[in-house]
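hey m, so remember when u said the tokens were messed up on ur end? i reran from scratch. heres the input so u can diff it against urs
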Amino acid sequence: MIKKLIIIVVFVSSVFAQSNQSNLFEQFSNSFADIAEDVNESVVTITTTNTVQMDKDVQNFYRYWGRDIPDEYESKSLGSGVIVDEKNAYIVTNHHVIFDERAQKPVEEIKVQLLDKRIFEATVIGLDKATDLAVLQIEASNIKAVELGDSEKVRVGEWVLAIGSPFSASLSHTVTAGIVSALGRNDVMNNLNTYQNFIQTDAAINPGNSGGALLNMKGQLIGINAAIASGGGRANAGIGFAIPSIMVKKVMNDLIDKGYVVRSFLGIYMQDINEDLYEALNLQTRNGAIVSDIVDDSPASKSGLVEGDVIVSFEGKEISNGSELKNLVSSTDPGSRVKLGIYRDNKKKNIFVTLEEREDIVATTTNVNYEFGLLLENPSEDLINKYKLNEKNPSNIQGVIVTGVEDNSPAEEAGLQEGDIITRVGRKKIYSTKDFLSEMSKFDDESKVLFLVKRGSSSRFITLTR
């Protein structure tokens, strides 16, 4: 009798377990489907069109062999975006989706297609190459914005969904699922002048997904999909990266409100701690960042930081490397007084620093076309490489770079050339195009303006009449 009772209990328990497991899987599946249905209309497909000028050497090569090719051709590309404000119809996407790196300007035409197949022409509201983000706007009604989540609460191992348009517009609103594989990835893009703090996921992300949504299981936006890592170079291999929503929110608000991203700076050069440094300097920690140099008259120099200090925390938050510190500093409001935890001579202490606005970031995507026939831009890695300047880091260049000189203009007559760096207007040092315009506004028409121009390793003064 007892044996029979045990068999009945085991059988009933097994039936209930299978029933509960079935219900669990069904609920789990329904959760994915509910999120996809709710958020799909907030994700858009972006197609861009741009006219590309054919290289003359390439044309001449083909003509030599009896083939003629056109002077220019139309280039089209594909990406994704997310509606973040239904009242103003703002859309967040990646900078690289709508920016022509060769011409250093946004593409000529941007079309946004919604889930209901409506198509709108988009206007660029703002660009930020440093975070690979851009804000667009369309004239549309009856649209739905996604709810922004808190990426600071994301945990490794939690389930996420990615929505975008991989490979083709005909595959728009493709939904893939995976987990958060890692947080705080900062060595994804090989670019000195970037702010990287990626969420890593194994949800399938492919070309065309760029700018699309990464969602938590509440259907909230926790990231903008930005990059993939794959052995072959194009197809997904289970490693994708998304820009966290906390960074998206700040950049988006700054671009909408000001047209550029407000960032603070500390004024230091730093190194991560490797095993050699750890042993050679007899350090107490492998986490943090070592101060290798301090910029004159910077917040760091005013605070008492010195070379060799190891910064291990920012406002009580422990940091593991220099990239993490850079992100925390840049996202803090200028004028904030912050506490840095440091090791100096293997003794722990606190240093208080009042952060200042980083001027050289202002309007980094904006060209200044001035009446002298000059096209000016803020320093960037692309310009350093293009003009083979004697500097590796854009933040080390003081001045603005001449990127264009009009024929028969006062600038050309004065001998200015592309790649020249204007370091002073009058007697005032300048650090950005914003500084240049500010100083020029102080001169009346017909005034003679003195420029200090650096070319190679030498500098000279030139005078132009406004």
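this time it looks ok to me. The chain has three domains: 1-263, 264-357, 360-465. if urs says something different then somethings off w ur setup not the seq
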